[in-house]
């Protein structure tokens, strides 16, 4: 670590924070576009004008939007996510356990798909142009070309309907036994793994192929190095940054996939919570969930950037 | 390199003679077929879109109903043919709006540079760090999902990506000496963008438009699948999957054929772009 | 002396991006004896690098050997399996690349990469190899030979990397070393040092070499024999002195003629008391934040002044990073000067071109180095030349068409070319169009920024001739910027020497016969290789001076 790297990393973090602020503005004002007065919706048609006025004041709705944004931002920063319009439960309580569930799902998926995808991606790059490479290419382009719910429904048809290995759509409550746990997670994890593996395989393959075409790899060949040495000793150390970047970026696809997967498998995660909030137009809940997703995405993207900076040998040894 | 001087063909001729790969040709035919279906759906659909043709729901494939019947006993083939209008139409409109705005903004930012460029880039980059499905959910929650609003929502979501792509290309072209020559000649901004920059980026921009079209089809289908896209009684392909999801455990054709329709369109566009002819370049230099 | 390399009727074909197959090596045969250095000379596209790489049993992806044999030390390379060929690379035959900066892996130390050859072939213990590497560093006149190996590639300069890559090639005690344009990317003062180092280690070890280059003067210093290649065929082969003095093949003669540019027949000097066309006075320019005086933090030009008389030419020479191209951009207003004055025809010019009058923009045209990037590939030649005619002179219709034909005549190109696009033209033709566009404006002063550097020697010589002819026909002045001193002298009356953003001196024919007087200029001028054998051996340069100035 040297001061140049520290400065660049700090720069990335500042950019991430600024981005988060802009994202907050967009999310807040997009939801503020909601047609109709929230208070009217909450109190119903029969509400007295006095009651409406009182609630408006209590919710700061009589104040200008910019001020409301700042208040909301302050609450957000202090951990106060507000209260659900629909059932008057604090948003933090609603999110709490659901977030844990989603993180578990994402974690298990990452643990399974990262090693598999990297192995396949790097193998495809080394065996470029062979049958193995082409097979992997066909698989990945097919998966990234179709919507996640197609991968999910096809998985159900194959694994549940035809093979009968796994339950179809039920998220059984029984996670106390190991077999129950496997059954509960298997379908969502399989589906998500397919989706993010395809991305990761493509990106890591591209990263390795790019380093393999570098002049210093040709130079190694002209020094008499074996194919194995060219890949392991010369290409991979330089491809680490791009590969780590590919992993972080691919993991960010989890966020989009998780919405579909939680819906289709009825999984009690935060994405399902947000979707329900959208159908009931529960503003504070929508805002908080959206901010959590954006934060997760930004963290992953920023990690990807930082890894790229730190793994650059020119910067490390300057 | 020697060039024969005998031919005096005009410079602006459409170049053919590229080797067209069979895969690319098949993909092109599939895309063209779906476009024709979207236009002529009422003429070729065997049944009206909402008509319940049989009381037996989730029927399997038969001569009478080539793709079976849906959860209400409607003809799936007819519904898919009409669904093409929504899936292809909305996506095409959205991608056109997104790319025209994104490319115009991107070229302008690249040529003007300075504060205008950095402010716009920072803002639009921030938009891309909202995952597209989340942004779609927020916008749909806020403004609803009528067809026109849906189209605009999808366009807004993909403007930043299109902007970033076009800007990156335009920045490269803008750094070329021929653009410098035009500037130093005293040319105005409009001329530089129109005559010097645009012709240099139009090819990749069209390819990008294809990829973005796929993203929009996928996002629209997902939204409809979640019940937030095209609303009943209308249905695009994603909505067809959603309304027939009950037949999943029966592996009913009513679930599978809309999926095949989506996949045939998106995979064809992706493969077609992958197989686009590379620019012909002789590598007879020291290789 | 016994024979080391035998190449017989070698044929290689390449697949182009379009899928077309072209034969790039068409039946090449030659021999190399042990300890002999043979040069492969040719312009781009002659196939010289392809042949050299094939001596190592290696063809780049997309290329394929279709016929002939390469026999190295009695073994036919083509008949061997890849593993056996790999065993010969680095130990029997080794390679020095054109760009050492790209050929060193940024993730490993220099020493690791130099001794890697030994590690791969197991030819000696690694500690022993490290000692030998340090000896080679010393023999190659590298600074700090003991410690330079511990550094990473990006921490040393280009000239040093080039010599380090020679150490990498020599550590396995090869019988043959292939040098692939190893000094082309270097400045002349650095090139002298690197060439000397190469020559002495090769001679001491009695190692045979293949020296691939486009530069006859460089090759004349190091090669015993020269093979002239063109379009994948051998045009002529002979001892170095014979090729230089008694060339037989017309192409070789053309090549030699291009190396000896005829001195410019000076146009008659116009009135002495006439005001100079261009005056640059105390110009400072650069990048980065500006300080209290409005001067930038990173100064590329420091108080540069010069003047150019009407109808005359001024050359600017210097090595990479001396600020000569920046000077052209400052005069054109692309990079506004932070301080100082620029006068064209007596009128002061605004620093920024955006604030200059249209007539000022018209009178001063800039021609860039690479016609590939200076001509819009999507416009036809007619459109490219027509635009300035319409823009500056409001020409349209027939008048414009007629003028485009005239311009093509002026740059000696056939008229039908106007319908082509730049991609369909050769490098020399493109550079002529580039020039014609400046002529279309009816400029008084043309800034030529390295306009011959990207061209093959013969083509470049033709462009220089064209410049002179145009000057005779039109009342034109050139500000001619180049790193190539011979070219500058062929075109220009006066020459400004620059070093690190400052003007060292202005050479004038009436002062000291136009010969340099300052130490740096003398070093620079004496470092330009001359087209005769023994120039390098006879060259006496003050080592102190070299150390002080050469940016190794």
Characterization of this structure:
The complex is a heterotrimer of chains A (318), B (287) and C (552). Chain A has one domain: MetI-like fold. With 318 residues, chain A is an all-alpha fold. Chain A is flat and about 85 Å long. Chain A starts with a helix and ends with a helix. The longest helix of chain A is centred in the C-terminal third of the chain and has 38 residues, at 227-264. In chain A, helix 5 runs antiparallel to helix 6 and helix 10 (227-264) runs antiparallel to helix 12. Chain A has helices spanning 3-32, 38-43, 49-58, 65-77, 91-126, 131-145, 148-162, 178-212, 215-222, 227-264, 270-280, 283-310, 313-316. Chain B is mostly helical. Chain B has one domain: MetI-like (MetI-like fold). Chain B is 66% helix and 0% strand. Chain B is built from 9 helices and no strands. Chain B has helices at 22-44, 76-112, 114-128, 132-143, 147-174, 177-185, 189-225, 237-243, 253-274. In chain B, helix 2 runs antiparallel to helix 3 (114-128) and helix 7 (189-225) runs parallel beside helix 8. Chain C is α/β, with parallel strands linked by helices and 552 residues long. Chain C has a domain at 278-378 and 426-514: P-loop containing nucleotide triphosphate hydrolases (Rossmann fold, 3-Layer(aba) Sandwich), CATH 3.40.50. In chain C, a hairpin with a 2-residue loop joins strand 14 and strand 15 (347-348). The longest helix of chain C is centred in the middle third of the chain and has 18 residues, at 188-205. Classes of the chains: A mainly alpha (318), B mainly alpha (287), C alpha/beta (552). Chain C: InterPro entries: AAA+_ATPase, ABC_transp_ATP-bind, ABC_transporter-like_ATP-bd, ABC_transporter-like_CS, Oligopep_ABC_C, P-loop_NTPase. Chain C: Keywords: ATP-binding, Nucleotide-binding, Transport. Chain C: It is found in: Cell inner membrane. Chain C: Its main location: membrane. Chain C: This is Glutathione import ATP-binding protein GsiA.
């Amino acid at each position: 670590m040297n001061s140049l790297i520290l400065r660049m990393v700090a720069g990335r973090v500042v950019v991430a924070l600024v981005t988060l602020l802009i994202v907050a503005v967009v999310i807040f004002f997009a939801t503020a576009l909601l047609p109709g007065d929230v208070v009217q919706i909450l109190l119903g048609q029969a509400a007295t004008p006095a009651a409406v006025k009182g609630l408006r004041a209590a919710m700061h709705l009589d104040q200008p939007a910019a001020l409301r944004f700042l208040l909301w931002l302050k609450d957000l920063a202090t951990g106060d996510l507000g209260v659900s319009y629909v059932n008057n439960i604090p948003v933090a309580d609603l999110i709490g356990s659901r977030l844990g569930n989603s993180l578990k799902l994402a974690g298990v998926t990452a643990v399974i798909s990262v090693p598999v995808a990297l192995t396949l991606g790097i193998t495809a790059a080394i065996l470029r142009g062979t049958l193995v490479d082409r097979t992997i290419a066909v698989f990945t382009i097919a998966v990234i070309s179709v919507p996640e719910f197609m991968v999910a429904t096809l998985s159900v048809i194959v694994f549940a309907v035809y093979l009968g290995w796994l339950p179809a759509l039920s998220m059984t409550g029984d996670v106390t036994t190991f077999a129950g746990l496997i059954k509960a997670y298997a379908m969502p994890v399989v589906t998500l793994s397919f989706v993010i593996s395809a991305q990761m395989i493509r990106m890591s393959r591209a990263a390795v192929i790019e380093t393999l075409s570098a002049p210093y790899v040709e130079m190694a060949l002209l020094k008499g190095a074996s194919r194995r040495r060219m890949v392991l000793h010369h290409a991979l150390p330089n491809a680490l940054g791009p590969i780590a970047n590919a992993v972080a970026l691919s993991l960010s696809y989890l966020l989009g996939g998780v919405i579909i997967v939680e819906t289709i498998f009825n999984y009690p995660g935060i994405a399902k919570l947000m979707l329900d909030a959208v159908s009931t137009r529960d503003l504070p809940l929508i805002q908080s969930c959206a901010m959590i997703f954006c934060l997760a995405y930004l963290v992953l993207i920023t990690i990807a950037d930082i890894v790229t900076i730190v793994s650059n040998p020119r910067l490390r040894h300057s | 390199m020697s060039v024969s001087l005998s031919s005096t063909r005009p410079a602006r001729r459409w170049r053919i003679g590229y080797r067209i790969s069979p895969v690319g040709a098949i993909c092109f035919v599939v895309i063209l077929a779906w476009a024709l279906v979207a236009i002529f759906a009422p003429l070729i659909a065997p049944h009206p879109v909402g008509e319940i043709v049989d009381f037996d729901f989730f029927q399997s494939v038969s001569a009478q109903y080539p793709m079976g019947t849906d959860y209400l006993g409607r003809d799936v083939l007819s519904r898919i043919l009409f669904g093409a209008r929504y899936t292809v139409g909305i996506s095409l409109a959205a991608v056109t709006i997104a790319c025209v705005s994104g490319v115009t903004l991107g070229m302008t930012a690249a040529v003007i540079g300075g504060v205008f460029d950095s402010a716009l880039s920072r803002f639009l980059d921030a938009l891309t760090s909202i995952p597209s499905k989340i942004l779609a959910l927020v916008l749909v929650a806020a403004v609803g999902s009528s067809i026109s609003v849906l189209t605009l929502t999808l366009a807004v979501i993909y403007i930043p990506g299109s902007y970033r792509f076009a800007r990156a290309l335009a920045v490269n072209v803008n750094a070329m000496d021929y653009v410098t020559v035009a500037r130093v000649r005293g040319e105005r901004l409009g001329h530089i963008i129109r005559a010097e920059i645009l012709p240099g980026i139009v090819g990749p921009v069209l390819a990008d438009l294809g990829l973005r079209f796929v993203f929009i089809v996928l996002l629209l289908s997902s939204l409809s699948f979640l019940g937030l896209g095209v609303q009943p009684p209308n249905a695009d392909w994603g909505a067809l999957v959603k309304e027939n999801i009950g037949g999943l455990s029966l592996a009913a054709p009513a679930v599978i054929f809309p999926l095949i329709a989506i996949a045939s369109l998106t995979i064809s566009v992706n493969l077609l772009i992958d197989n686009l002819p590379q620019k012909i370049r002789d590598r007879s230099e020291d290789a | 002396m016994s024979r080391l390399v035998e190449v017989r009727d070698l044929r290689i074909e390449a697949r182009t991006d379009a899928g077309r197959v072209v034969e790039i090596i068409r039946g090449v045969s030659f021999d190399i004896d042990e300890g002999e250095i043979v040069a492969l000379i040719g312009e781009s596209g002659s196939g010289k690098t392809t042949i050299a790489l094939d001596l190592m049993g290696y063809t780049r992806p997309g290329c394929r050997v279709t016929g002939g044999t390469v026999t190295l030390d009695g073994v036919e390379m083509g008949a061997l399996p890849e593993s056996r060929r790999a065993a010969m690379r680095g130990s029997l035959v080794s390679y020095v690349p054109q760009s050492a900066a790209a050929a060193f892996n940024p993730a490993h130390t220099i020493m690791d990469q130099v001794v890697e050859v030994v590690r791969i072939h197991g030819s000696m213990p690694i500690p022993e190899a490290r000692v030998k590497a340090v000896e080679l560093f010393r023999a190659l006149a590298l600074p700090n030979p003991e410690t330079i190996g511990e550094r990473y590639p990006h921490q040393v300069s280009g000239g040093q990397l080039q010599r380090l890559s020679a150490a990498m090639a020599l550590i396995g005690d090869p019988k043959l070393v292939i040098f692939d344009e190893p000094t082309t990317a270097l400045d002349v003062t650095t090139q002298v040092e690197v060439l000397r180092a190469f020559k002495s280690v090769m001679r001491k070890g009695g190692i045979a070499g293949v020296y691939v280059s486009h530069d006859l003067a460089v090759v004349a210093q190091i090669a015993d024999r020269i093979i002239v290649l063109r379009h994948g065929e051998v045009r002529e082969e002979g001892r170095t002195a014979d090729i230089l003095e008694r060339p037989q093949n017309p192409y070789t003669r053309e090549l030699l003629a291009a190396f000896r540019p005829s001195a410019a027949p000076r146009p008659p000097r116009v009135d002495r008391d006439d005001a100079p066309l261009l005056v640059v006075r105390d110009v400072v320019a650069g990048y980065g934040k500006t300080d209290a005086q409005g001067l930038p933090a990173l100064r590329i030009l420091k108080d540069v002044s010069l003047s150019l008389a009407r109808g005359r030419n001024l050359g600017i020479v210097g090595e990479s990073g001396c600020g000569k191209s920046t000077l052209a951009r400052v005069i054109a207003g692309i990079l506004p000067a932070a301080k100082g004055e620029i006068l064209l025809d007596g009128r002061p010019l605004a620093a920024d071109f955006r604030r200059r009058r249209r007539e000022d923009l018209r009178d001063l045209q800039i021609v860039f180095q690479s016609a590939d990037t200076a001509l819009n590939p999507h416009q036809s030649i007619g459109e490219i030349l027509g635009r300035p005619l319409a823009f500056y002179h409001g020409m349209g219709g027939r008048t414009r068409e007629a003028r485009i034909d005239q311009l093509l005549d002026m740059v000696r190109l056939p008229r039908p070319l106007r319908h082509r696009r730049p991609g369909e033209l050769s490098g020399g033709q493109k550079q002529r169009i580039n020039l014609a566009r400046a002529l279309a404006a009816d400029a008084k002063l043309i800034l030529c920024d390295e306009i011959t550097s990207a061209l093959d020697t013969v083509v470049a010589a033709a462009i220089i001739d064209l410049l002179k002819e145009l000057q005779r026909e039109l009342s034109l002045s050139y500000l001619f910027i180049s790193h190539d001193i011979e070219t500058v002298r062929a075109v220009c009356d006066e020459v400004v020497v620059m070093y690190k953003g400052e003007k060292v001196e202005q050479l004038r024919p009436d002062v000291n016969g136009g010969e340099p007087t300052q130490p740096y200029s003398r070093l620079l001028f004496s470092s330009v290789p001359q087209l005769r054998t023994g120039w390098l051996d006879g060259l006496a340069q003050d080592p102190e001076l070299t150390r002080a100035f050469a940016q190794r």
